[in-house]
Design a protein that fits this description.
Radius of gyration: 19 Å
Shape: globular
Distance between the termini: 51 Å
Number of domains: 3
Low-confidence stretches: none
Number of strands: 10
Oligomer: single chain
Structural class: alpha/beta
CATH superfamily of the largest domain: Type I PLP-dependent aspartate aminotransferase-like (Major domain)
CATH architecture of the largest domain: 3-Layer(aba) Sandwich
Helix content: 25-40%
Mean pLDDT: 90
Bound molecules: pyridoxal-5'-phosphate
Number of helices: 10
């Protein structure tokens, strides 16, 4: 692996897969061979994570998280526990969970959101790790897990989806940063169609497919230093602009954190989001929870899912874009 991301994985043996889902699927397969029969999942997670869990045939249950997103698992002996690190910060439960990993349960850490942050001191022989690189730049495909797996050559279908997604992302990136110059309908519709097609193909993919070479090249040659620098600077700017005026969910920015986004909590989140979208400012939601996550048993996860809005701070944006976004949010939200 030549990617700068290899620094994070410290030369561990691992496998590149087409998605985070596929990487988790590889880990679950290996754990099944080791006798694991049950996966304990955080109630606050993306629906797509259930795809490999269901496909694995393992039993699964959910565990609660606190308002600070601290994992509170209570695993059956010998189960696997999935630990999510949210929005760039290591989960507050990480140290405690790592210290018992391999004895009472198998720990699987999802590093997707903290891909570029300091991972602390994980015990790579006792735990499983994976990430999706798809949240961090114009990367249509790409996941990684610390298991050695056999991969098959990417099919033509996967290669052409990747091409379509790359083209759509470029187009979208252009009009996000030049909102008045380009016609919206063409770019946004094509982007959304390509996005949906890729998501459906990733959900449906059953074999462990390699990442096409041209996509791997994007991962290898992305200017990761700029990604790190811009995200941190943009986060700081937006946090300063909004601090005291909006409820920020993401904690203070430590030196070793590269944030995925700045998360605010809003009672009328969907209305504010729609108003921002009218001004071509698109803010993702984390997450539409799986239907199996019961609102009565997991009220904190549901409240976060219904009220949190993730403000984009990625490398496409500069100081001017950030102040436009921050001011639009404050005026959409009202007094
Ligand atoms: C935290 C987290 N991990 C993993 C994934 C899955 O990654 P992928 O979309 O590459 O399958 C997602 C998807 O949104 C996610 O939010």
């Amino acid at each position: 692996m030549t990617s700068p991301l290899s620094r994070l994985t410290r030369g561990w043996r691992g496998t590149w897969t087409i998605s985070g889902r596929a990487a988790l699927a590889q880990i679950l397969e290996q754990l099944k061979h080791r006798g694991v029969r049950h996966v304990h999942l955080p109630a606050y997670l993306c629906r797509s994570m259930l795809v490999p869990v269901k496909a694995s045939g393992l039993n699964y249950t959910f565990y609660p998280i606190g308002q600070d997103m601290m994992a509170q698992p209570d695993p059956l002996p010998g189960a696997a526990v999935l630990l999510l690190h949210y929005f760039g910060w290591l989960n507050p439960a990480t140290e405690a969970l790592r210290s018992r990993a391999g004895r009472d349960y198998c720990l699987i850490e999802d590093m997707t959101h903290c891909l570029l942050s300091n991972w602390g001191n994980p015990n790579e022989t006792m735990s499983q790790f994976f990430f999706s690189a798809r949240k961090w730049g114009p990367i249509p495909l790409g996941g990684w897990c610390n298991t050695a797996s056999k991969v098959e050559r990417a099919t033509r279908g996967i290669e052409s989806l990747a091409q379509r997604s790359i083209a759509a992302r470029r187009l979208r990136g252009e009009y996000l940063t030049r909102p008045n110059d380009l016609p919206e309908s063409l770019t946004e519709t094509e982007y959304l169609n390509a996005f949906r097609a890729v998501e459906e193909a990733l959900d449906a993919a059953r074999s462990c497919s390699a990442v096409p070479a041209d996509v791997m090249e994007i991962i290898d040659t992305l200017d990761w230093e700029t990604v790190v620098h811009r995200r941190r600077a943009n986060f700081q700017r937006l946090a300063e602009l909004l601090g005291g005026h909006a409820e920020l969910v993401t904690p203070k920015l430590n030196d070793d954190v590269v944030p995925l986004g700045l998360v605010v909590q809003l009672e009328d989140r969907d209305r504010v989001r729609a108003q921002l979208a009218e001004q071509r400012m698109y803010c993702p939601i984390h997450w539409l929870l799986p239907e199996e996550v019961d609102a009565k048993r997991f009220p904190v996860a549901h409240r976060l899912a219904q009220t949190c809005l993730t403000l984009p701070i990625d490398q496409r944006y500069d100081a001017q874009d950030l102040s436009r976004l921050g001011n639009a949010l404050l005026s959409a939200r009202g007094p």
